[in-house]
Every structure is written in structure tokens, then in C-alpha cells.
Amino acid sequence: MTYYPACPVGHDKVLGISPHSDISMLTLVWELNMVGGLQIKRQDAWVPVKPQPKALAVNVGDFLEILTNGKYQNIEHRVTVNPHKERMSISAFHLPKFDMSVGPLSEIVGAEVKKYKTLRVDEVAMPCLASE
């Protein structure tokens, strides 16, 4: 669970979470109290993701982009704070097993050139998880 307190002073200068993409296959985000803050980058602009009741936001992660050879692209996103209300969310990160390797699936790539090399999950995930 992630908690972002209201930030009445300087909220326009503070980020809840700085811009990044998730290393996961998929990330599911549940906005508990329907206070927005999640933004995705689209065409070089930050676009707010409006929370929907009884719905999850789904972010494509880096490993899914690799697996699909870029057919599904990861989503750069960030979280901003609200000047008047606290924000609470729960995120579920879905990763392959750490002892696996992930590369473009031949069934998806077909005759195309592979855009990504095969990587061991633990070699990519552990440094990212340790830095958080």
C-alpha cells in the first residue's frame, strides 16, 4: 500500500513518485480512495489517469515489452501529490520467476528482427528492487 499525504504547500514542486517504467510484466493499481495522481506520458505530455470505481489501472512493464518484442510497450508514469486530499493505492507487480530468462517470443517475432536480447530476470530485477 502506498500513502501520499495531502501537500497544501509546494504541491506543484513535489512528486509522489518520479517518472519511471515498471520492470514487471504487468502492474495492477487499485486507487483506494479515488484521489487521482497517477499520470502517464503520452506524446511528450503528462496525462492524468482518472481513477474509476471498481476498476484497476493496468501498466505494461519492461519484461512484457521484451517478451512481445515491443508490440506492447511499457508505460512511463509518475505519481503527483494532491494539495487537499491524501491518496492511497495498492499496486501488485507481476514478475516472472527470478531464475528465468526473458526474451522476445519466437511466436510473436516471426520473421521480424528481435529488438531485445534475452535477459535473466534476477540480473535485471534485483538491482531495481534494491534501489527502491
Give a verbal description of the structure.
The structure is a single chain. With 132 residues, the chain is α+β, with helices and mostly antiparallel strands. It has one domain: B-lactam Antibiotic, Isopenicillin N Synthase, Chain (Jelly Rolls). The chain is built from three helices and ten strands. The protein has helices at 62-67, 106-109, 121-131; strands at residues 2-4, 15-20, 26-31, 38-42, 45-48, 57-60, 77-80, 87-94, 101-102, 119-120. It has a four-stranded antiparallel beta sheet. A four-stranded antiparallel beta sheet has the order 2-7-4-5, with no helix packed on it. Strands 9-10 form a two-stranded antiparallel sheet. The longest helix is centred in the C-terminal third of the chain and has 11 residues, at 121-131. It starts with a strand and ends with a helix.
Write the layout of secondary structure elements.
Layout: E1 2-4, E2 15-20, E3 26-31, E4 38-42, E5 45-48, E6 57-60, H1 62-67, E7 77-80, E8 87-94, E9 101-102, H2 106-109, E10 119-120, H3 121-131
Antiparallel strand pairs: 1-8, 2-7, 3-6, 3-8, 4-5, 4-7, 9-10
Any idea what the shape is? elongated
Based on CA atoms alone, the radius of gyration comes out at 17 Å
Taking the sheet with the most strands, its summary is: 4 strands, antiparallel
Low-confidence stretches: none
Q: Output the helix-strand order.
A: EEEEEEHEEEHEH
Strand residue content: 25-35%
With strands numbered from the N-terminus, the spatial order across the biggest sheet is 1-8-3-6
- CATH class value: Mainly Beta
Mean pLDDT: 91
What is the CATH-assigned architecture? Sandwich
State the helicity in percent bands: 10-25%
- How many helices? The count is 3
Query: What number of structural domains do the residues give?
Result: 1
Q: What would you give as the CATH superfamily? A: B-lactam Antibiotic, Isopenicillin N Synthase, Chain
Number of strands: 10
N-to-C span: 15 Å
Examine the coordinates and then state which fold CATH places here, giving the name of the CATH topology.
Jelly Rolls
Given the helix and strand composition, which structural class is it? alpha+beta
GO molecular function: metal ion binding
Pfam families: 2OG-FeII_Oxy
InterPro entries: IPNS-like_FE2OG_OXY, IPNS-like_sf, Oxoglu/Fe-dep_dioxygenase_dom, Plant_2OG-oxidoreductases
Keywords: Iron, Metal-binding
